[in-house]
Amino acid sequence: MIQQQRLDRLTDWLKAGEIDAAFVHSSENVYYFTNFMCHPHERLLGLFVFQEAESFLVCPKMEEQAAREAGWTGHVIGYDDAEDPWALIREEWNRRSLKKRLNIAIEEHVVSYARSQKLQTLAEEVRFCSLDETLNQLRLVKDERERQILKEAARLADEAVQAGIEHLKEGCTEMDIVAQIELAMKQKGVAAMSFPTMVLFGEKTALPHGNPGMNRLKKGDLVLFDLGVVWNGYCSDITRTVAFGSAGSKQREIYRLVLEAQQAAIDAARPGVRMGDLDQIARKKISDAGYGAYFTHRLGHGLGISVHEYPSLHGNNDHPLKEGMVFTVEPGVYVPGVGGVRIEDDVYIAKDGAELLTSFPKDLIIV
């Protein structure tokens, strides 16, 4: 079972570091080890993993059946809204006859101060260490099952872009197109988008993370789509920019430049290449053409259970690419008063180079 293999790797890390337990807290990381996705809002969700003792899951009682149906076969502490889950945790903790002085690994960027205080009540002395880098490394390399899920998520993202393009017409609003895209995905069985769908028209495309609104489409506008879907717990993320009616010379110039920069970075991607080199390759193309000041973000980010996960593909990242990694490559140029172009694909690092999971055409489309 994949989840047991992942738990075994975490247990091996605990033993090697002489760490007594790990508290896995974020929904995404709990899912990675249990296949159970839960968004508990303010309620407590967590997985306790030990060197030797049996792991146990803590979740709201109303989610307990879902955890079982997802495939978790270990012990579950389900609690209702009137109960203190930490009292139940302490009871379960004491059954394991753990030491009075403990080292507990936590997700330091996720566990709140209040919950760290609760963890400190589980023994006479509790010392914390970071679990973040270990979880990042475990999730960094995708197995074949994950690759296939991500590939299907990417295919659906391609179809979402097509759905958006098909509904472009003069006078429609950005929110009209967002609604059509998300309806099309719901009709294909997609329960959730990876993030709020972005559709921008005209000068608003110069905002890398602009918010769709009631802006109306007119001829000569660029249209930027940035979207993704969640499929079987994994995310896709694609950006395409098209022109409506016509494209001016400046728009075409920017589009050609961004496409060349993206392709240069993709061509260079293979195991062993420094991650930061990909950013620098794309950035140099754009800077040499005089648009460096208008490329205002990193080249890309890791992709998997989270739409933004480790690693960050910025120019100072010295870590090497590894076979099995999945990340985005998304250079952009954003010129106020003219508009912006971003082209983004989901990339899998195979043994001999980059494999694109997204496949929507990248030649400039005039709708």
What does this structure look like?
There is one protein chain. With 367 residues, this protein is of the alpha+beta class. The protein has 10 helices and 19 strands.
SSE-based structural type:
alpha+beta
| Biggest β-sheet description | 6 strands, mixed
Ranges where pLDDT stays below 50 over 5 or more residues in a row are none
Shape: elongated
Number of helices, where a helix is a run of at least 4 consecutive DSSP H or I residues? 10
Order of helices and strands: HEHEEHEHEHEHHHEEEEEEHHEEEEEEE
Strand order in the sheet with the most strands: 4-3-2-1-5-6
Query: Can you count the beta strands?
Result: 19
What's the helical proportion of residues? 25-40%
Q: Average pLDDT value?
A: 96
Protein name: Aminopeptidase P family protein
InterPro entries: Creatin/AminoP/Spt16_N, Creatinase/aminopeptidase-like, Creatinase_N, Pept_M24, Pept_M24_MAP, Peptidase_M24B, Peptidase_M24B_aminopep-P_CS
Domain Creatinase N-terminal: 6-141
Pfam family, one: Peptidase_M24
Topology:
Layout: H1 2-16, E1 21-24, H2 27-34, E2 46-50, E3 56-60, H3 64-70, E4 75-79, H4 85-95, E5 101-106, H5 113-119, E6 125-130, H6 132-140, H7 144-166, H8 174-187, E7 192-193, E8 198-201, E9 222-227, E10 229-231, E11 234-235, E12 238-243, H9 249-268, H10 275-288, E13 300-302, E14 309-313, E15 326-329, E16 332-335, E17 339-342, E18 345-350, E19 353-356
Parallel strand pairs: 1-5, 3-4, 5-6
Antiparallel strand pairs: 1-2, 2-3, 7-10, 8-9, 9-12, 10-11, 13-14, 15-18, 16-17, 18-19
Helix pairs in contact: 7-8, 9-10
